[in-house]
Specification:
Length: about 280
């Protein structure tokens, strides 16, 4: 199987799992009393989505290893591409029934490796519909999933060759612990753009992708590296944003060029229209 065929198989496996993940949340909304490798409380749904996707992805021929936000170590499963996953992004939105997602990155290098080795990325949004945004032939396409009989899921193209439009919205996380400098930056941005922040990266990013603007989870006074994980959240979304004509930074360098030291390391993240990323690099 060549690399593209493997990427397509991973996409199909995630599409097939997505309706089950959403349906399974109903009875898995309690915290399990454990923490994930980033010291965050795990919900039953986090553990379950991780197991479901792990089973599917590690069985794909052409996948050599899988790294998950919910697993301490890399799982070796054969020869081939490396897949990263955040099985349920934004699971603290589950109790209030707000948007959550799944984020996948595919690399042609062993973990831990930088975003420069990424060859494909996609994310699922569990909203009123289940949609999947993926990179394909250097473009960004959005699919809507329709469940058919049995286990079949049909992805229908909803938006093709998505390009970031003129900036309209922004969403910044971590506001209780922003630096003074970042507060001033936010104050300025809020004069031009409409605030849209929901607390799940995929949901907030999906708005920026469709409406243009800036998503950020900056360095916090109590957490200099911010909250988001480089491998599981920042890199795949940066890859998608850049293919949609946008850009990314940690304030000093392109997210995708950042060297990776640890599997679960965090980074400040800024993603969106190029002119806004330049503004971040000049002012934050
Ligand atoms: P959870 O998975 O713990 O809900 O965290 C979601 C997330 O990693 C990311 O999806 C959000 O952008 C960010 O954290 C939200 O963080 P705040 O709760 O600090 O706003």
């Amino acid at each position: 199987m060549n690399e593209q065929e493997t990427v397509d198989k991973v996409f199909e496996a995630v599409a097939e799992a997505a309706p089950h993940i959403r349906a399974g949340i109903l009875h898995r909304r309690e915290y399990v009393g454990e923490e994930n490798p980033s010291d965050e409380k795990q919900m039953e749904a986090d553990v379950w989505a991780n197991e479901l996707l792990k089973e599917k992805i590690t069985n794909i021929e052409g996948v050599g290893e899988l790294a998950s936000e919910e697993e301490q170590e890399v799982i070796e499963c054969g020869k081939g591409l490396s897949v990263s996953m955040d099985p349920l992004d934004g699971s603290s939105n589950i109790p209030t029934n707000n948007v959550i997602g799944t984020i996948i990155g595919v690399y042609n290098e062993e973990f831990p490796c930088s975003g420069e080795n990424m060859i494909s990325a996609f994310y699922v949004v569990y909203g009123p519909l289940i949609s999947m945004v993926r990179t394909e032939d250097g473009k960004v396409n959005e699919y809507v999933l329709e469940e058919k009989s049995g286990d079949r899921v049909e992805p229908y193209i909803a938006s093709e060759d998505i390009e970031l439009p003129e900036p309209q919205v922004y969403g910044f996380g971590g506001n209780k612990n922003w630096s003074e400098k970042f507060r001033e930056f936010e104050d300025e941005i809020s004069k031009d753009l409409k605030l849209r922040y929901g607390g799940a990266m995929v949901g907030d990013i999906n708005q920026v992708l469709h409406q243009g603007g800036l998503f950020a989870y900056p360095s916090r006074t109590d957490a200099p590296e911010g909250k988001l994980r480089l491998l599981f959240e920042a890199n795949p979304i940066a890859f998608i944003m850049e293919k949609a004509g946008g850009s990314s930074t940690d304030t000093e360098q392109d997210i995708l060029e950042k060297p990776v030291e640890g599997l679960h390391e965090r980074t400040p993240v800024f993603l969106g229209n190029e002119e806004l990323i330049k503004k971040v690099e000049n002012e934050v």
